[in-house]
Amino acid sequence: MSLKAINLERVKNNVSNPKVWIVIGVSVAGILILTAETRRRRLKGRYAIREDYGAFIERFELLPFPQPPPPAAKQPLSGLTFAVSDVFDVKEYVSGFGNPDWKRTHEEAGKTAIVVTALLKDGATCVGRTVMDELSFGTTGENSHYGTPTNPAMPSYVPGGSSSGSSVAVAAELVDFAIGTDTIGGVRIPASFCGILGFRPSHGVVSTIGVLPNSQSLDTVGIFARDPSVLHRVGHVLLRLNPVEPRRTRRIVVADDLFQLSKVPQQKTVYIVSKVTEKLSGYQQPKHMNIGQYISSNVPGLKYFHNEESNLQNGTNALKALSSAMLLLQRYEFKTNHEEWIKTVKPRLGSDVSDHIHAAISAAHENIKAYYKVRTEMRAALRSLLKDDGILVIPTVADTPLKLDSKKGLLTEYNERLFALLSIATMSGCCQVSIPFGKHEDSCIGVSFIAFHGSDKFLLDTVLDMYQSLQGQVNAVTSLPPSLDLNGNMDASELLKEKGNAAYKGRQWNKAVSYYTDAIKLDESNATFYCNRAAAYLELGCFQQAEEDCSKAISLDKKNVKAYLRRGTARESVLYYKEALQDFKHALVLEPQNKVAKGAEKRLRKLVS
Questions:
Q1: Measured between alpha carbons, how far is residue 114 from residues 111, 125, 243, 508, 556 in Å?
Q2: Residue 103: in which H helix or E strand, if any?
Q3: Are 516 and 500 a contacting pair, CB within 8 Å?
Q4: Tell me, what's the pLDDT at 142?
Q5: Could you tell me which of 99, 125, 122, 94 has the C-alpha nearest to residue 110?
Q6: Residue 158: closest CA among 447, 399, 360, 413
Q7: Which residues form a coiled coil (predicted)?
Q8: Strand order of the sheet with strand 390-395?
Q9: pLDDT the model gives residue 408
Q10: What pLDDT is attached to residue 404?
Q11: Using CB atoms within 10 A of its CB, is residue 262 exposed (0-12), middle (13-18) or buried (19+)?
């Protein structure tokens, strides 16, 4: 009998053996588990948060310049750390422009960029160079050579670009602030996607000497920060601003049409800004406008850039024409700067960036003067609109971040909507700050303030002035359930009070205290909030806190009967009968027929006598 026949015979004899089936079952299960585990680990590895969130290309330390000895004041940036994008020259290091072939074909820098030197002189420490979109092209922040930095707020989504690593380093609290470049959105986009502050200064006011250019008519050095006071200090250092300036009234203008292009909820944004400006001195109530139509009427040079089939009087078409002019200007200047290197070196480029650069290098530019004409007209139009006291409020970006490794086809329409918003400050040269406004549908959203070219201190002062109040309103509004959403009339603090009342009725005393506390943070002058919190404290047996809240309520409203009753109850509970008696007497003066006060007065008279 052959060996094959013997083996077949053995299989037949063992098929009916249950032990064989157990072995087979365990083996198959093991294979399935191993396959599933391998797949799980691949997926986990794909979206795993790398060390330092993948923000840095290289780490080094540049110490600050020697500080002046006491009694001289500390330098304004003393103790702060920062990172720089891969476009800033650092002496004895090669600026890589986000691309290994660029780094390979260029020499070490002989000098450090002026902006980096300024930060070191004023006390900050530089800790490294960050990842960016190659050659400052791209809006997603993805880099096929160095890896894509992980968005700390949304790890499976892009961080935004071009200055992605700098934004991530700040959002992940790896540094106190960071700098990057913003040509057509390189700082504003990632700031919005990562939920931090991002500042694009007025064009030309911060030195770009020692910074690799993409398009010098549009390039700016931008700042990322989590803390508005840090942004303010760094801005003052780089802009060399006069620390003292006469305070101006602020005129808020909301671009209603741009919120229609965006997923940022307009009603909540306008509500939040309105409530904050109501409570701060020197702010006018927001006005509303259609910025697209305004640009259409005041920038005649856009006629060279619109589709012949479209109506330029339509504001959206005007914004599309403006973004077309912006992209053509960028491509023209990029080609002038880098065409020779691209054609000589033929660098390896990521697919998305490769398309942008191919379009820039292959473009034929027939009407170059028209690009600069639009830029000049846009600056004049925004000067006329904003003057020296206006703040234009717009969504920073149109859409929520794309998922990592999204299909290229999604980017075309995505970028079209994105550039319609970003082109306003880019082409006018105005300064713009993207401010985190919480989340919408689990995605970070940013709302931008724009001020006229040269009004950088005015804008930074405004952000510093409003930021805490804005975040308080954002947090209050974000926490509201749909049943208590904004109705356009009720203040967010009142809505929190209603949530506290609901918790109180449900006998959830601690939760009630929490809601009343949040309401007080938004409005410290409302006696009812303190009085209601006192009621919850009484239920919890926190008599001292209840007494303090009632005293505060009475100081705000001398006729608050409930505050006298609740303070009397708190004092009686800790055996301060005489003081309690006085509170109930006050209540009776205000409401002679109050049964609670009458009963308490009668009871306490016996105890006191």
A1: 9, 15, 21, 58, 54
A2: helix 100-104
A3: yes
A4: 95
A5: 94
A6: 399
A7: none
A8: 56-62, 125-130, 81-85, 177-182, 220-225, 197-200, 431-440, 443-451, 390-395, 251-255, 287-289
A9: 73
A10: 93
A11: buried
| Cα separation values, 265 from 225, 259, 380, 391, 493, Å | 24, 7, 30, 19, 20
Residue 356 tokens read as 């942008």
Phi and psi of 175, rounded to 5°? -140, 165
**Cα angle, residue 396 at apex, residues 392 and 398 outer, rounded to 5°:** 120
Contact status, residue 138 vs residue 181, Cβ threshold 8 Å: no
Two tokens, residue 105: 């074909």
| Contact assessment for residue 11 and residue 17, using Cβ atoms and an 8 Å cutoff | no
The single-letter DSSP state of residue 339 is H
Residue 361 DSSP SS3: helix
H or E segment and range at residue 470: helix 456-478
Cis peptide before 71 (omega within 30 of 0): yes
Sorted by sequence, the CB contacts under 8 Å of residue 228 that are 6+ apart come out as 197, 463, 464, 467, 468
Of 445, 397, 152, nearest in space to 272 by CA: 445
CA atoms within 13 A on the CB side of 415: 19
What sign does the dihedral 152-155-160-162 (CA atoms) show?
positive
Residue 451 phi/psi, 5-degree rounding, is: -125, 160
Structure token digits, residue 535: 């009621």
Q: Report which secondary-structure segment, H or E, holds 119.
A: helix 114-121
> Chain centroid to CA 152: how far?
12
Beta bridge partners of 123: none
Residues 6 or more apart in contact with residue 364 via CB below 8 angstroms: none
Sign of dihedral through CA atoms 352, 310, 420, 322?
A: positive
Distances in Å between the Cα of 497 and the Cα atoms of 507, 519, 527, 531 are 15, 6, 12, 11
pLDDT of residue 12: 46
DSSP string of 569-600, one letter each residue: HHHHHTT-HHHHHHHHHHHHHH-TT-HHHHHH
Per-run averaged pLDDT (10 residues), the chain, 609 residues: 44 49 47 45 49 95 92 92 98 98 98 98 98 96 96 96 98 98 98 98 98 98 98 96 81 94 85 89 93 96 80 80 97 97 96 89 92 98 97 96 84 91 98 95 94 97 96 80 48 84 93 92 90 96 94 95 95 91 94 93 86
Query: CB of 579 within 8 A of CB of 559?
Result: no
Rg (CA), the chain: 31
Specify the residue for token string 């086809």: 409
Q: What tokens were used for 169? A: 């380093």
Asked if 129 and 30 touch (Cβ cutoff 8 Å), the reply is no
According to the model, what pLDDT value does residue 344 have? 97
Q: Give the pairing type, strands 177-182 and 81-85.
A: parallel
What is the per-residue pLDDT for 312? 57
The torsion angle over the Cα atoms of residues 126, 128, 134 and 135, rounded to 10 degrees, is 40
State whether residue 487 is helix, strand or coil: coil
